[in-house]
Amino acid sequence: MTNAQAALLHELEPIVEQNLNRHLKAAKPWHPHDYVPWSQGRDFAFLGGEDWKPEDSPLDPVAKAALIVNLLTEDNLPSYHREIATRFGRDGAWGSWVGQWTAEEGRHSIVMRDYLVVTRGVDPVELEHLRMQHTIAGYDSGDKTPLQALAYVSFQELATRLSHRNTGKASGCPLADQMLARIALDENLHMIFYRNLMEASLDIDPDTAMQAIRDEVLGFHMPGMNMPGFADKAKVIAKAGIYDLRIHHDDVLHPVLRYWRVLERDDFGPDGEKAREEVVNFLAFLDAQAKIYEEKKAARAAKEAETVSV
């Protein structure tokens, strides 16, 4: 970490403390075991019961794909902890936040796995195999600066919140919907924390902050993209409208950028102005790509409807 980056983190420390206190007042305690229908559970063959069969699952293929992606993403918490502890440090208010965030995030994989195993929603053997692969591979964001990390998680936490919430709605299971809505509340509070810190960074160092935002808008990837079979599952998820380009453009990038007043600020120098222009151009490109995808999706739907009616 450079001296300038360390100085910025130090300058942000009082704002971190303010937002940590705000977060602790807003966050409501909850218990993963409350969201799991334990009465539906039964032993597997190892304890004299029956191992999982495809017909055991009450979930359709879309819900399975989305829940597996969401759970495996949450499983990489050790890597995410390393990422933010390395960028923000383990001392003072920053360190308190790193610990609080990690403890809260840990509940997400606990409750999702318990739900899926108890309800036999997915093959638990395959799920464990995928977890081992994904966690061993870990997650590495590269050499992001602290500001790039703040910009990234501001978008990523909101994207994850929407993914969980939309997965719950698409699951067809009221229990899963309730569980994922609760997880989404955590993700929203986490997004607000990071978003507020990035807003303060824009006031402290507008140009450097805007360049960091530009880097993460243009280079954004979900943290689970390196999991086994992610590309195929992402296509299923996008086709179902759980998370696609339109949602990313309209419901993730635009709300956060609007909150930061990126298009309205008048305190950028040449470097900040250039970064802002690149963001504007990319948003236009992304919107055009989303429209193309929507047109293709509508054409497929019309063709399928025509086939059914024949």
From TrEMBL:
<comment type="subunit">
    <text>Homodimer.</text>
</comment>
<keyword id="KW-0444">Lipid biosynthesis</keyword>
<keyword id="KW-0560">Oxidoreductase</keyword>
<keyword id="KW-0275">Fatty acid biosynthesis</keyword>
<protein>
    <submittedName>
        <fullName>Acyl-ACP desaturase</fullName>
    </submittedName>
</protein>
<comment type="similarity">
    <text>Belongs to the fatty acid desaturase type 2 family.</text>
</comment>
<dbReference type="InterPro" id="IPR005067">
    <property type="entry name" value="Fatty_acid_desaturase-2"/>
</dbReference>
<keyword id="KW-0276">Fatty acid metabolism</keyword>
<keyword id="KW-0443">Lipid metabolism</keyword>
<dbReference type="InterPro" id="IPR009078">
    <property type="entry name" value="Ferritin-like_SF"/>
</dbReference>
<dbReference type="InterPro" id="IPR012348">
    <property type="entry name" value="RNR-like"/>
</dbReference>
<keyword id="KW-0408">Iron</keyword>
<dbReference type="Pfam" id="PF03405">
    <property type="entry name" value="FA_desaturase_2"/>
</dbReference>
<keyword id="KW-0479">Metal-binding</keyword>
